[in-house]
Design a protein that fits this description.
disordered N terminus; disordered C terminus; two-stranded antiparallel sheet; 13 helices; about 65% helix; single chain; about 350 residues; mainly alpha
Length: about 350
């Protein structure tokens, strides 16, 4: 026992003479890193505007809560670095955009609903833009942001695919009201997935590293399947435009021909899918319905040329009511229209619009 004690004591003495090394974490949680993580998580959780609750009489969403946390974290970064937000080339256009939105609030039939939309679509969106402009400075910052956001996009795309498969398995697939993940709508799904798909295609084609190329290819395939099973015909048009841009983006005629061939084969395969094929059979009705809606909107705007603000934010259903035809076509307001879902970032101003349908 005495020998063991002496041996342990000698080991401790030797360790005390060795220089101590501080453990440096590869990703120390500085205020800037915390704000960057908050920004990335918020970008990954954009569809979570569907999670809603109230603070007293004030409605809010999980997405809005994440935005407020991100803005607070960035404000703390600015305070620690003793500086103001970075100026950008879009400062003046953003100011004009905010003033135009404020005019839409003033002339809106319901100021309460209009302010809710102005807060979500204007103020919070602009705030997140400046946060991103101030935090995404280096390649590693952008890589972290894209990695976290891609995880959220992949989860949403998988959810959309699973929703479609569940509807097929239970024989409840209705192409006119296709299944949508998180109880949104097929158009919302497609509008959310289209920008990430364009980014993924860009990484797959123009990546600077082989690993990024493979990740881009995998994400492109996953998101493409999710967009297809959303059955949004407008998204199919957007995919066609993206394919044209990709083909024209190649400098070599040989690569342009190859890209054109791949795009043509993919288009033929998608069109031959029975569900997609049947979806295109009702395209004429959809065009006629939207044509009637746009005509009503133009008539409404022609009678208020001085204000140039149109119906005001959230005021379209009310302002356009006198211009609806009494027979044949009526205006059916979308179930998730404003103000029920004021934080649907990907719907943009479309949330205030209606969808005309034929009377039975």
């Amino acid at each position: 026992m005495i020998a063991v004690y002496l041996k342990l004591d000698s080991i401790k003495a030797i360790e005390s003479d060795l220089p101590r090394r501080s453990v440096a974490l590869p990703w120390s949680l500085t205020p800037r890193r915390v704000a960057l993580l908050s920004l990335s998580v918020t970008a990954a959780c954009l569809p979570l505007y569907v999670v809603r609750w109230h603070y007293g009489s004030i409605p809010t969403t999980l997405l809005e809560t994440l935005i407020l946390v991100t803005v607070a974290a960035y404000a703390f970064v600015l305070w620690t670095e003793k500086r103001l937000p970075r100026r950008t080339p879009l400062d003046i256009p953003i100011a004009i955009f905010l003033l135009a939105g404020l005019a839409g609030v003033i002339v809106a039939p319901s100021h309460t609903a209009a302010l809710g939309i102005y807060r979500a679509y204007f103020l919070e969106a602009v705030a997140m833009y400046y946060v991103a402009a101030g935090l995404l400075r280096e390649r590693k910052d952008v890589t972290t942001f894209l990695a976290v956001m891609s995880a959220g996009v992949a989860a949403y795309a998988l959810g959309q695919i699973v929703s479609f498969l569940a509807a097929v398995a239970t024989h409840h697939l209705n192409l006119s009201a296709a299944p949508a993940f998180l109880n949104t709508s097929p158009n919302d799904d497609a509008m959310y997935l289209e920008p990430p798909f364009a980014f993924a295609v860009g990484f797959a084609l123009f990546a600077s590293r082989q690993r990024e190329r493979w990740i881009g290819l995998g994400m492109s395939a996953l998101i493409l399947v999710a967009i297809i099973v959303a059955f949004s015909r407008a998204s199919y048009l957007a995919l066609a435009v993206l394919a044209l841009v990709v083909v024209l983006g190649f400098q070599s005629p040989r690569w342009r021909l190859r890209a054109l061939g791949v795009a043509a084969v993919l288009a033929l395969v998608v069109i031959e899918i029975p569900f997609v094929n049947r979806r295109f059979l009702t395209l004429a009705d959809s065009v006629n319905n939207r044509d009637a809606l746009y005509r009503e909107a133009i008539q409404m705007l022609s009678h208020m040329p001085i204000t140039i603000t149109g119906a005001g934010i959230s005021g379209f259903p009310i302002r356009v009511a006198p211009y609806r035809p009494t027979r044949g076509v009526r205006l059916s307001i979308v179930a998730h229209a404003v103000p029920r879902a004021p934080h649907g970032r990907n719907r943009c101003s479309r949330a205030a619009l209606g969808r005309p349908v034929h009377d039975p």
